[in-house]
Amino acid sequence: MSTTRDRLAKLDEFGALLVKAGLATEFLPTGFELSPEQARQLRLHFDLNPPTSAAYAPWLVADVLLLDVVLKKQPVTRAELGRRIQEFQTLFVLRRDGYLAEALSGKPNQCVGPVEVRDGGLRAGIFEVGNFYRLDDANQWQHVQVPAPSTAAL
Fold first, then answer.
1. pTM reported for the whole predicted model
2. What letters, b where the CB count within 10 A reaches 16 and e where it falls short, cover 95-116?
């Protein structure tokens, strides 16, 4: 039986994202690919264990990736998941506490104001909880359409 230290030492990018999202190391999937059933089980685990504010942004990224695996109904290699994670490197997420946080680390970047229910969503200024944003070349925040097109069709 491996220890927590052993499991953490063997983490790839996908495993590290799951840990940042709040998954306990004993629930980390093993193997070179992730099956749709494993992805479904991980999503169920996350649904039953809501994220903290610090884990919210990585949790959202993990959910996007896991949902994509479930919907495609095909196993995805860990290498491909690692590649997809890189697509989130420059993105930010509005948390429920009004902070824009780095999508992969969850590190707060700036407070954009109090979150309130407005126009059918949780919003702070121009931002909405659960959406992804990026700074453009003019240093203006832009909404980024995520999840990937394969899951947006639902």
1. 0.86
2. beebbbbbbbebebeeebeebe
Q: Quote the DSSP letter at residue 127.
A: E
Is residue 100 within 8 A of residue 85, CB to CB? The reply is no
State pLDDT tens for residues 68-92: 999 999 999 999 999 999 999 999 9
What is the 8-class DSSP label of residue 11? -
Looking up tokens 């890189």 gives 86
Q: Which residue type occupies 60?
A: L
8 backbone dihedrals φ, ψ, rounded to 5°: -70, -35
The amino acid at residue 39 is A
**Across the strands, what pairs with 100?**
94, 110
Quick: pLDDT tens for 25-49. Answer: 889 998 899 999 999 999 999 988 8
Supply 65's token pair.
Answer: 């990736």
Q: Which residues contact 98 (CB under 8 A, 6 or more apart)?
A: 111, 112, 113, 114, 115, 124
